[in-house]
Amino acid sequence: MIQESENTLKVAQQAFEHLIHGMATGEWEALLNMLTEDFTLWFPMGKFHGSNVGKERAREFFQYVSDSFSPGLKLKSLDSVTSNETTAVFEFRDEGVLFEQPYKNRVAVSFDVRGDQICGYREYFGSDGKSY
What we know:
- With 132 residues, the protein is α+β, with helices and mostly antiparallel strands.
- It has one domain (2-125): Nuclear Transport Factor 2, Chain: A (Roll), CATH 3.10.450.50.
- Helix content is 32%, strand content 44%.
- It contains three helices and six strands; from the N terminus they run H-H-E-E-H-E-E-E-E.
- It has a six-stranded mixed β-sheet with strand order 2-1-6-5-4-3.
- Strand 3 and strand 4 form a beta hairpin.
């Protein structure tokens, strides 16, 4: 169990680093390469609200993130990391420009890990988008 938990955290931390890089640069290939073919993404609102299945849908989602947050989102702080045998959750603060308006938020994302790949991603956020 401990070895499984350590692997889950290691794989999820790599995915989180790729996520942060993609948010800042729009370069998503490293993250996309970590996804399983049956990858499931859950998002709380908008065009991608609910469950989204498959790597191609994930590619569309992450491209939408880049398009929405031009010139990119910056990680301001990593507040907490929690993990178990199959899932790791990262709570963080980010900021940028959303459709030409200042944006700040507190976010939690979870990565479900299978082996050395990511099979699930869920995102939650809750501030007004302008404050922490």
